[in-house]
Amino acid sequence: MTAVLRITHKFRNVCHHAYFGISIRTCSQKEVLRQGELHTPVMVNEVLECLQPQPGQVFIDMTFGAGGHSQRILESAPDIKLFVLDRDPVSYSIAKRLAVKFPGQVEPLLGRFSELPVLLKSHGIRHNSIDGILFDFGCSSMQFDVAERGFSVSKDGPLDMRMDGDRFPEEPTAADVLAKVDEEDLVKILKVYGEEKQAKKIARAVMEARYVFKKLETTSELGDLVASVCIDEERLDKLQRHTHSATKTFQALRIFVNNEVNELNFGMIIAETYLKVGGKLVTLTFHSLEDRIVKRHLLGNVIDNAINPLPLKYTDSSLWYDRNEVDSVLHSNWKLVHKHVLTPSTEEVAVNPRSRSAKLRAATKVTNSFV
């Protein structure tokens, strides 16, 4: 993990202040409404059961998306105050319409997790004051469905993948990453962020493609390139359906371009900071990298505000620590609501196949951090 964080810093230094001229089409108001109406929130009943909204409570939806979870929270009890955050300008537009529907109850916020403390301060929100926080990590259905965003291997469009849209035009797109990253770093990105077994072959093919295409600029170009490398490999998803061989490559690039690992880690720190004692945290993750970060935060397996690269099961029998030393290292301010992770029902997966990879974890904050 540490090595990849160094890669991120190294590459962002290379690309800083460079304007690449690739923009994302702004969706029309009609399209924004249509996408929001068609979106199906994942495990919404389980989310509400864990949050247990009560009249007058204050919540933060850290990943608003199309607002499916937010609307159900608002409908579950009267006079709820809800801060809704999203880094995507399209989602922010939907959030403003939800604020009209629930006047005085919804505060739309545009920004990343790392921007949230400043945004909350502008609204007078203090630490240890929020009743519940929800994370629905990953990419939203709207982003996958709009070809111009470049998130989906099945829809041809520019290789963009920036969740922020054009808010930060100097930030590199996925096409810029592929045009500038060196082979060794690309292998690490694909292995760590995509858990791609063919990372070396794919990275080599990208390097060779530079001499042919000058630059991989569309999703179909990248998808076809990866498919040509993995031609003898058949891949299936969790529903045993055929999946494109470039899916993990797209995931890895999306996570890297949007700095999702660092943002997720910081988001968990923010949740612990702003929740009151007794407040509820609910997370929905969609791949093992996200779930691993959440789980280790909840278990207290965190060192210097970052997750321990090793799980707790790895121990050295030659070392001995007294109880106070162990408690100081493995202290957690969380109490897990469920012993095991929750997954969507068979019925929900049949209706909404994109929920198939979802894992829900919930916890209650039991103490304030004094660090």
UniProtKB/TrEMBL annotation:
GO terms for molecular function: rRNA (cytosine-N4-)-methyltransferase activity. SUPFAM superfamilies: Putative methyltransferase TM0872, insert domain, S-adenosyl-L-methionine-dependent methyltransferases. Gene3D superfamilies: Putative methyltransferase TM0872, insert domain, Vaccinia Virus protein VP39. Keywords: Methyltransferase, S-adenosyl-L-methionine, Transferase. GO terms for biological process: rRNA base methylation. Belongs to the methyltransferase superfamily. RsmH family. HAMAP family: 16SrRNA_methyltr_H. This is Methyltransferase-like protein 15 homolog. The lineage of its organism: Eukaryota, Metazoa, Ecdysozoa, Arthropoda, Hexapoda.
